[in-house]
Design a protein that fits this description.
Elements: E1 2-6, E2 8-9, H1 11-28, E3 33-37, H2 49-57, E4 62-64, H3 76-81, E5 100-104, E6 110-117, H4 128-135, E7 148-154, H5 158-168, E8 174-178, E9 188-189, E10 195-197, E11 202-203, H6 214-222, E12 239-246, E13 253-261
Parallel strand pairs: 1-3, 2-11, 3-4, 6-7, 7-8, 8-10
Antiparallel strand pairs: 1-12, 5-6, 9-10, 12-13
Length: about 270
């Protein structure tokens, strides 16, 4: 399978980057499945039915979440009803929605997507380590009845993301980090066959401070006054994501590559 994971979609610029690039990437990379982290899609904070449907309309199959999932409370009904929406699995069991689900593509292949959130420098949710263990298959994806298993680890600390990557090694096709909005240069395949990248980066305007307007962000650092409400930067967005191709016999990774196009970062699109 050929799968694309899109980094955090930030505001209108991020949504426009998705709509501008995902359809072309689906054709160019012959993609079978597309996942995007959408927790910042609605004006930088949260997501709404409208913004989710915009991403789905551009060719995204599943939207994952993070610490801003609930910033727009009107997403709750859709989170309960639409299985294409995920929130971190280590929220309490009474939280609306789901943290993992199995999807079927047009060829009948089964893809499991898991979303967890780390705890260092983040909200203290349930421990993501046993929660990820609970949702991972016991062995390689194909042996466990899946054609691919994709994990979105939403978190600040690289140490937690890397440790979770090693836990998933041999049991997932790809484990990729989100949340920092900065793409890391460490895409590789772990010893037992799981592709890994610490952070996919963001789909948004990089002439900014992690997607937010520069003036308000800088002012909040310079002044010790009540924080000014930040708004997403609205220039041309860069698409950032991770491409993974799975081995048909095992469901583990055969290759992995960052994807960047548009906006300000150097372009990288795999052959």
């Amino acid at each position: 399978m050929r799968i694309l994971f899109c980094g955090d979609v930030v505001g209108r610029s991020g949504r426009e980057a998705i709509t501008a690039h995902v359809p072309a990437l689906r054709d160019r990379l012959r993609l079978d499945f597309v996942i995007a982290n959408g927790e910042n899609a609605a004006h930088g904070f949260g997501m709404t039915e409208k913004t989710c449907n915009e991403l789905f309309g551009a060719g995204v199959d599943v939207i994952t979440g993070g610490n801003h999932t609930w910033d727009k409370p009107d997403i709750i009904p859709q989170m309960n009803s639409d299985e294409r929406l995920l929130r971190p699995a280590n929220y309490p069991e009474t939280t609306p929605g789901r943290g993992a689900a199995v999807y079927t593509d047009g060829a009948g292949r089964r893809i499991k997507v898991i979303n967890v959130m780390t705890r260092l420098f983040m909200e203290l949710l349930d421990d993501p380590f046993p929660e990820l263990q609970r949702h991972l298959p016991p062995s390689a994806p194909k042996k466990s009845g899946f054609d691919a298993v994709i994990v979105d680890v939403h978190g600040e600390a690289t140490s937690e993301k890397m440790a979770l990557g090693h836990i998933a090694d041999g049991r997932a096709t790809l484990l990729v980090g989100t949340h920092t909005h900065i793409p890391t240069a460490d895409a590789f395949i772990l010893n037992a066959g799981t592709a890994y990248q610490t952070d996919a980066g963001m789909c948004g305007d990089y002439d900014s401070v992690i997607g937010m307007g520069k003036d308000a962000s800088i002012g909040n650092f310079l002044r010790k006054l009540p924080r000014e409400r930040m708004k997403p930067a609205d220039g041309e967005g860069t698409f950032c994501g991770v491409f993974v191709e799975s081995d048909s016999a095992t469901g583990l990774a055969a290759r992995v590559s960052p994807v960047r196009c548009g906006g300000r970062l150097a372009e990288q699109i795999p052959d």
